[in-house]
Design brief:
Chain lengths: ~110, ~110
């Protein structure tokens, strides 16, 4: 089992729709969860971080965390063609000392006009 | 402007050569990281450094070396011992152990000829 799993996609949604991206993780001790957006040929850009169960909203983005189910998701409302990118889920490994991040392989999102 | 810079953007290496990738940050971050990204794979941690003059191996350190003589700089050397060095190399930084929101530089694309 991979430490962080994401569906590779592509996930195709029409412009204006809600895109839902999912991520599961295996380390029950994980405390920090991050979503990065990566455009083709570019480096990852941090868009959301979440540390406690529940929802966290920032503009059109909502991160949802369920530690009991070891599941974190990212919702993008009113999706735009400019949201078309690969979205990486990252989870910290370990709950003591220096916490390294483990990245999923990413979900490719395509938003059609 | 605060940020992370990496140079060069593209690098071509002949078999048997060592090359050094530069990473500089002016965010006053304590921790710095090097990752490698290959198509279809998540980011894999090569080396990380929590403070000046200290660094630790990540998951795939073989064939790589680093130094951390200044807080702002964390260069990576890809040695001839690295069997498959062609990849996208990403440098990141964070405030430190308990603030591991990592921010990435623009990356260096290394190709072995």
């Amino acid at each position: 089992q991979k430490e962080v799993e994401q569906n590779s996609g592509p996930l195709s949604v029409p412009e204006g729709a809600i895109a839902s991206l999912n991520c599961t993780y295996s380390d029950r001790g994980s405390q920090s969860f991050f979503w990065y957006r990566q455009y083709s040929g570019k480096s990852p850009e941090l868009i959301m971080s979440i540390y406690s169960n529940g929802d966290k909203e920032d503009g059109r983005f909502t991160a949802q965390l369920n530690k009991a189910s070891q599941y974190v998701s990212l919702l993008i409302r009113d999706s735009q063609p400019s949201d078309s990118a690969t979205y990486l889920c990252a989870v910290n490994r370990g709950n003591t000392g220096f916490q390294k991040l483990v990245f999923g392989t990413g979900t490719r999102l395509l938003v059609s006009p | 402007d605060g940020g992370i810079t990496q140079s060069p953007k593209y690098l071509f290496r002949k078999e048997g050569q060592n090359v050094t990738l530069s990473c500089e940050q002016n965010l006053n971050h304590d921790a710095m990281y090097w990752y490698r990204q290959d198509p279809g794979q998540g980011l894999r941690l090569i080396y990380y450094s929590q403070i000046v003059n200290d660094f630790q191996k990540g998951d795939i350190a073989e064939g790589y070396s680093v130094s951390r003589e200044k807080k702002e700089s964390f260069p990576l050397t890809v040695t001839s011992a690295q069997k498959n060095p062609t990849a996208f190399y990403l440098c990141a930084s964070s405030f430190g152990v308990y603030h591991n929101e990592q921010f990435f530089g623009p990356g260096t694309r290394l190709t072995v000829l």
